[in-house]
C-alpha cells in the first residue's frame, strides 16, 4: 500500500471510525472536531500538526510519529505513547483529557501540559525534565523513577510524588503542593 504526503490541509467534522485516515505523512495539517476513537494511527507521521476538539481515545499508536504536534481540547483516553516512534517525539497538550494514558519510558523533555486531566496516567521511567504541568489534575498519576528535574509543578494538583525514587533537582512546586511530596510518610498536614 502506498503512502501519501499532505501539507497545510484542514480536516474537520469527520468520523474516521467509518473511513480510516490514509497512511502517510501529514505536515502542518489541522484536524478539528474529528473522531478517531479506537482507530489506527500506527505508522503515521504528524509533523507540526494541530488537533482541536478531537476524540483520539484508544487509538493505536505503534510507531506513530508525533513531531511538534499540538493537541487542544482533545479527549485522549488510554493512549500508549510508549508505542510511538521515539525519534523527534514532541507534543503539547492544552485542555485535554489524557486519563489512563501511558508515557512509560518516553523521553518528552520540555513538554507543556496545560489545563489537562492526567488522572491515572503512567509516567514510570519517563524523562519529563524541563516540562510544565500548568493547572493539571494528576490524581493517581504514577511517577516511578521519573526524571522531573527542572519540571514546573507549581500549579499542578492532586499529585503524589515520592522524592526518594524520582529525580527532582530544581523542580518547582508551590508551598500548597508540598503535601504531594510527603504522602509516602503518611503524615497529616493542616
3D architecture notes:
- It is a single chain.
- The chain is mostly beta strands and 190 residues long.
- The chain folds into 2 domains: 25-92, no CATH class; 98-190, 3 Solenoid (Pectate Lyase C-like), CATH 2.160.20.80.
- It has one helix spanning 179-182; strands at residues 4-7, 10-12, 24-27, 30-32, 45-47, 50-52, 65-67, 69-72, 91-94, 112-114, 132-134.
- A 7-stranded parallel β-sheet has the order 2-4-6-8-9-10-11, with no helix packed on it. Strands 1-3-5-7 form a 4-stranded parallel β-sheet, with no helix packed on it.
- It is elongated and about 55 Å long.
Give a brief rundown of this model.
2% of the residues lie in helices and 19% in strands.
Secondary-structure map with pairings?
Blueprint: E1 4-7, E2 10-12, E3 24-27, E4 30-32, E5 45-47, E6 50-52, E7 65-67, E8 69-72, E9 91-94, E10 112-114, E11 132-134, H1 179-182
Parallel strand pairs: 1-3, 2-4, 3-5, 4-6, 5-7, 6-8, 8-9, 9-10, 10-11
For the structure shown, list the relevant keywords.
7-stranded parallel β-sheet; single chain; 11 strands; 4-stranded parallel β-sheet; 2 domains; mainly beta; Pectate Lyase C-like; 190 residues; 1 helix
* Main structural class: mainly beta
State the helicity in percent bands: under 10%
SSE pattern = EEEEEEEEEEEH
The CATH architecture assignment of the largest domain turns out to be 3 Solenoid
CATH topology-level name of the largest domain: Pectate Lyase C-like
Strand content bin: 15-25%
Counted up, domains total: 2
What's the number of extended β-strand segments? 11
Provide the gyration radius in Å.
17 Å
If strands are numbered along the chain, what order do they take across the biggest sheet? 2-4-6-8-9-10-11
Q: By CATH's scheme, which homologous superfamily of the largest domain applies?
A: E3 ubiquitin-protein ligase SopA
Major beta sheet, specifics? 7 strands, parallel
Q: What are the segments in which pLDDT stays under 50 over at least 5 consecutive residues?
A: none
Please, what is the average pLDDT? 94
Number of helices: 1
Compute the separation of the termini in Å. 62 Å
CATH class of the largest domain: Mainly Beta
Overall morphology: elongated
Amino acid at each position: 500500500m502506498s503512502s501519501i504526503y499532505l501539507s497545510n490541509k484542514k480536516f474537520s467534522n469527520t468520523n474516521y471510525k467509518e473511513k480510516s485516515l490514509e497512511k502517510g505523512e501529514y505536515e502542518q495539517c489541522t484536524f478539528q472536531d474529528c473522531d478517531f476513537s479506537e482507530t489506527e494511527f500506527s505508522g503515521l507521521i504528524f509533523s507540526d500538526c494541530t488537533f482541536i476538539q478531537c476524540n483520539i481515545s484508544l487509538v493505536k499508536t505503534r510507531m506513530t510519529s508525533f513531531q511538534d504536534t499540538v493537541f487542544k481540547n482533545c479527549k485522549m483516553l488510554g493512549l500508549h505513547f510508549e508505542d510511538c516512534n521515539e525519534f523527534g517525539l514532541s507534543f503539547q497538550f492544552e485542555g485535554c483529557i489524557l486519563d489512563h494514558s501511558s508515557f512509560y519510558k518516553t523521553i518528552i523533555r520540555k513538554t507543556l501540559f496545560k489545563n489537562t486531566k492526567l488522572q491515572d496516567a503512567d509516567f514510570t521511567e519517563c524523562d519529563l525534565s524541563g516540562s510544565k504541568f500548568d493547572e493539571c489534575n494528576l490524581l493517581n498519576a504514577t511517577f516511578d523513577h521519573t526524571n522531573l528535574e527542572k519540571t514546573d509543578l507549581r500549579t499542578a494538583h492532586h499529585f503524589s510524588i515520592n522524592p526518594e525514587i524520582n529525580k527532582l533537582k530544581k523542580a518547582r512546586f508551590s508551598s500548597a503542593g508540598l503535601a504531594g511530596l510527603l504522602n509516602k510518610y503518611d503524615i497529616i498536614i493542616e
